[in-house]
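cron nightly-structures :: item 1 of 1
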Amino acid sequence: MKIRKAVLGAALLVAWALPAHAHVGVGETSSFIAGFRHPFSGLDHMTVMIAVGLWAALKGGKAIWAWPGAFVGVMLVGGVLGMLHVPVPFVEPGILASVVTLGVLVALAIDVPVSAGAAVIGLFALFHGHAHGTEVPENAAGIAYLAGFALATVMLHAIGIAAGLGLGLRLRGLVRGAGAACAAIGAGLVFGVI
């Protein structure tokens, strides 16, 4: 019953999300609550953050905390770079690529060393963080926004981990199917059909 609730909860969150809004100037960006709500506002955010958790659960061991930790840490660095107007090339394509790539990594249950997975995840997190850092003011309200964004990101990673671990080895195919759905959503975003 707990497994079904976790999967249903994750499915409802993804269904509730709107299409990608990883663009400068979308929505309020000056409070903790706005930052917390933002990751729940687009399919790109929802799928990537849940996919990180799913992939970490498939890998197991240190990846369960290292990969989400890498995402959140590098995302915050990217956010600060964005706030400081430090240019990072290919942010939007990188965000879209993250949805497809992480979905494929989960769908194929790609097994890489923890450090390699953290590097891949960190690269994508830099793009996500930078996109949102460019939106926020360079003051305490901007820091509050990033803190809310980070907390929501941790929660979405936890949903992915809980779903992945809850389904376990018996239903590993369902976890991989969720990865395929993530890749399909990413392809839909890339080609503008979602």
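cron nightly-structures :: done
The CA atoms of residues 164 and 170 lie 11 Å apart.
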